[in-house]
Write a structure and sequence with these properties.
The complex is a heterodimer of chains A (about 425) and B (about 80).
Chain A lengths: L2 H36 L4 H9 L18 H14 L1 H18 L11 H19 L5 E4 L15 E5 L2 E11 L7 E8 L9 E7 L5 E4 L13 E11 L10 H7 L2 H5 L2 H19 L15 H30 L4 H29 L9 H10 L8 H12 L13
Parallel strand pairs in A: 1-4, 2-4
Antiparallel strand pairs in A: 2-3, 3-7, 4-5, 6-7
Chain B lengths: L1 H13 L15 H4 L2 H15 L10 H4 L2 H14 L2
Helix pairs in contact in B: 1-5
The chains are: A alpha/beta (about 425), B mainly alpha (about 80).
């Protein structure tokens, strides 16, 4: 296969994947209001994602997955979020775990021999097998009450014991915390590693007797992510469930920042797209109050729609550009700056465009029966998810000024 | 010093995403230089080349924080397991 054949084939694969996601998004849209109202986990949507083979969207093809790169993944997430942002956001939490592994060049492991090679390849193969063949879901538990997402400040602690590790602490905002088959828990080593705290990721299986779920997730938006609080009490984790290396998580999330910062950019872009589609449909066929004059003939309406569309397209361009940089060189300074810029833009765009849409379309859109009401609430969550808008701009500012952003010592984490 | 230089040279030649060799110094922080998979590859290379096998708990920022510290770890293992 020559280069152009290969490119064409990749383009066909991407188009097919996006078609599948678009179709799923339409299906999710029909269920979204019910799950949102009940604050219930969208089990049917995840069954659909599993049936479509999308739980392994980031797993390399040679391991049975879809093998999407970061740009394709971002676009896929956007399509799913147009239908139901909460499903897309929870789905992203599953993919963060896999993506953090797959954008390292895993082929570099193939020639590794001996115990070291077998251990890392064994962990990789186990994780991919669980996802692709087992249809298992992974959750991520990093944030904590009173600390938020700042990994360097977390208080959940682990210690080494015979055969593994023991975790004690509390995690909040754990999307799918009750439903996922495995949860990747960020915890601090009891050992002192100096300036940079030794944070590790440990894989905890559902049903572990050391885990207790508190179902306290009753929020403004993203209600069906079921991001409950998890308590870990002498929770034992076998040694082979350490995610890569010990005590290096802060280095990893500073250097390869895109999964934690910008992997859900597609979600908020999807909400903004859904808002805009709603506005266009709403305006179509409506007339100005008490007249037969189409609403779209009003210059102020045209102005507002133009402003919304321009902002949406600008954010989409910046998001895709950042995702393409990540796909090309994950962890590079350029990719990291781009992903922060994009996170800021979509994090601010989504609530702004939802607010504008309500102002433009009027009071009837504030009813629970109107999807715009849900878009507005879901959209508001973007700016406060890590990295917060303020952190994104500070990061970009530091980078533009030539200051260090690649060391954990200078990081907001 | 010889060991440290050897490691610097090897790492500089094999850094991923770099088509040309990179100048690596003894006090460069490996964890800021390369990703986790590359670290594991470096450790595997070191174990094979110098005939040592590190205990898992040794693979942490204390010993991987710089090329120099990794070289010191190798030297310690060779001393303790001649």
């Amino acid at each position: 296969m020559n280069r152009s054949d290969s490119d064409r084939s990749a383009n066909d694969d991407t188009a097919s994947l996006l078609d599948v996601c678009r179709g799923l998004g339409c299906r999710f849209a029909g269920r979204a209001a019910g799950y949102d109202r009940a604050g219930a986990f969208p089990l049917e949507n995840f069954a659909d994602l599993s049936s479509a083979g999308l739980l392994g969207i980031l797993v390399p093809k040679e391991h049975g997955g879809v093998g999407a790169d970061f740009l394709t993944y971002t676009r896929a997430l956007e399509q799913l979020a147009i239908g139901d942002a909460a499903t897309a956001l929870a789905f992203n939490m599953h993919n963060i775990v896999i993506g953090s592994l797959t954008d390292s060049r895993l082929d570099r492991l193939e020639d590794l021999e001996g115990r070291r090679g077998e251990a890392i390849k064994g962990f990789r193969d186990w994780l991919f097998r669980e996802v692709v063949r087992g249809g298992k879901l992974f959750a991520t538990a990093a944030s904590e009450p009173g600390v938020g997402f700042r990994l360097s400040k977390i208080r959940t602690i682990y210690r080494r014991v015979e055969g593994g590790f023991v975790i004690n602490g509390v995690k909040s905002f754990v999307s799918m915390g009750s439903q996922a088959d495995y949860c990747i828990v960020a915890a601090r080593s009891e050992r002192d590693f100096g300036d940079i705290p030794g944070i590790s990721y440990l894989v905890v299986e559902r049903g572990n007797p050391g885990v207790r779920v508190v179902e306290d997730w009753d929020t403004l938006g993203m209600r069906s992510t079921c991001s409950n609080t998890l308590h870990f009490n002498d929770c034992f984790v076998p040694a082979n469930r350490l995610y890569l290396l010990e005590a290096v998580a802060l280095y990893k999330c500073t250097r390869e920042t895109h999964w934690l910062v910008g992997s859900y950019n597609g979600v908020y872009l999807g909400i903004a797209s859904a808002v805009f589609a709603f506005v266009k449909q709403y305006l179509s066929g409506r007339t100005q109050a008490g007249t037969e004059i189409p609403l779209v003939d009003d210059a102020l309406v045209q102005y507002r729609v133009g402003k919304m569309w321009t902002a949406l397209e600008a954010a989409r361009a910046v998001t895709y550009e950042a995702a393409a940089r990540v796909a090309e060189a994950p962890g590079s300074p350029e990719a990291n700056v781009s992903i922060h810029r994009a996170k800021y833009m979509v994090g601010e765009l989504a609530p702004w465009i939802a607010s504008e849409a309500i102002q433009l379309c009027g009071g009837s859109t504030m009813f629970k029966s109107c999807p715009l009401e849900r878009y507005y609430r879901d959209a508001r969550c973007g700016g406060v998810m890590p990295a917060k808008s303020e952190d994104c701009l500070t990061y970009v500012g530091k980078a533009v000024l030539g200051l260090d952003v690649m060391s954990p010592k200078s990081s907001y984490w | 010093m010889h060991l440290e230089n050897e490691l610097c040279e090897h790492i500089g030649r094999h850094i991923a995403n770099s088509s040309a060799p990179v100048l690596v110094k003894g006090d460069d922080n490996l964890l800021e230089l390369v990703d986790s998979i590359e670290i594991i590859r470096i450790v595997s290379f070191v174990e094979k080349k110098y005939g040592v096998e590190f205990a898992d708990h040794e693979l942490n920022p204390e010993n991987l924080g710089s090329v120099r510290r990794l070289a010191e770890l190798v030297a310690r293992y060779r001393r303790e397991n001649p």
